[in-house]
Amino acid sequence: MNLVIQGVQPLAAAQIDSVRAALGHGAPAPETVDAHAVRFAFGETPPSEPVRTGLAQVCEAMSLDCAWLAPGRMADFAVLAMDMDSTLITIECIDEIADFCGVKDRVAAITEAAMRGEIKDFAESLTRRVALLEGLEATALEQVYLERLRLSPGAETLLARAREAGLKTLLVSGGFTFFTEKLQTRLGLDFTHANRLEVVDGKLTGRVDGPILDAAGKARELRLTCQRLGVPTARAIAIGDGSNDLAMMAEAGVSVAYHAKPKVREAASVALSHVGLDGVPRLFA
Asked: Catalytic residues per the record (predicted)?
């Protein structure tokens, strides 16, 4: 197993010393990944669970991410699958759309409950939220894209490293095609799938046009993409933050919980709670 420690700021010698102390005697020497990360290459037997728990507490106190992962290279994978809202980008698009018609608080509350898994049926939660947008001028979508949508820190670095390693990129979202299609063009993504908002006479109808892409749909799109490329889903890396991503993440060989809800962090192979998306390629450096 490899242990990768990384931080938003360049690692200080005192931080690395604290990590080494938490690991105890017999730990391998740290190897520098870059200024922000070090790797400890353990053998087949990683430290005991109490040691790992103590290390996690030490790292959290220093706002560092620690990840245990089998050794490997990014080039060992074939697909990078990503959620969009609060993962590839910093916002929840539907919440920002709702702000233009004065119902952001109501929509955001449903969004948060759905991402925590408190509303079990994603299709129900999306239907309820989209209904609150009825009558909004469709031009508001362009305003959200131009004025509020921002890429998550490190997103472009992640995508560049994935391309260099030969991975195909898949953006699969319970959000909306208006945004995924723009991001596909802007970022050169290979595949995108999302829900389509129904627009009539230039206004949102409060309905989704076609079947809703939910958690099962995300997992299905990952499987279909891998089938199209002739690779098993074990050669996919999946990144998400909410309960709607769990099924997709379970299909992948490596799953990354990015600034995620507790339920997602617990289920993922790796959780990144401090660093940006550029922390993903460091896991495989």
From this structure: 83 (nucleophile), 85 (proton donor)
Catalytic residue among 65, 85, 214, 241: 85
Domain final residue, candidates 14, 36, 71: 71
pLDDT tens, per residue, the chain with 285 residues: 999 999 999 999 999 999 999 999 889 999 999 999 999 999 878 899 999 999 999 999 999 999 999 999 999 999 999 999 999 999 999 999 999 989 999 988 988 887 777 877 889 889 999 999 999 999 999 999 999 999 999 999 999 999 999 999 999 999 999 999 999 999 999 999 999 999 999 999 999 999 999 999 999 999 999 999 999 999 999 999 999 999 999 999 999 999 999 999 999 999 999 999 999 999 998
- Are residues 85 and 21 part of one domain? no
pTM for the predicted model, two decimal places = 0.94
Mark which of 71, 104, 123 sits at the end of a domain.
Answer: 71
Judgement on whether residues 79 and 16 belong to the same structural domain of the protein: no
Torsion of CA 163, 153, 239, 267, to 10 degrees: 150
Task: Report the CATH number at residue 8.
Answer: 3.30.70
Q: What are phi and psi of 134, to 5 degrees?
A: -55, 130
- Say yes or no: 63 and 100 in one domain: no
Of the candidates 105, 178, 170, which has an alpha carbon nearest to the alpha carbon of residue 145?
178
155 and 110 belong to one structural domain:
yes
Same domain, 55 and 83: no
User: What's the domain range around 83?
Assistant: 75-282
- Does the annotation mark 214 as catalytic? no
Same domain assignment for residues 50 and 82: no
Tell me if residue 83 is catalytic: yes
C-alpha 170/C-alpha 189 separation (Å) is 7
Please classify residue 130 by burial: count the beta carbons closer than 10 Å to its beta carbon, then call 0-12 exposed, 13-18 middle and 19+ buried.
buried
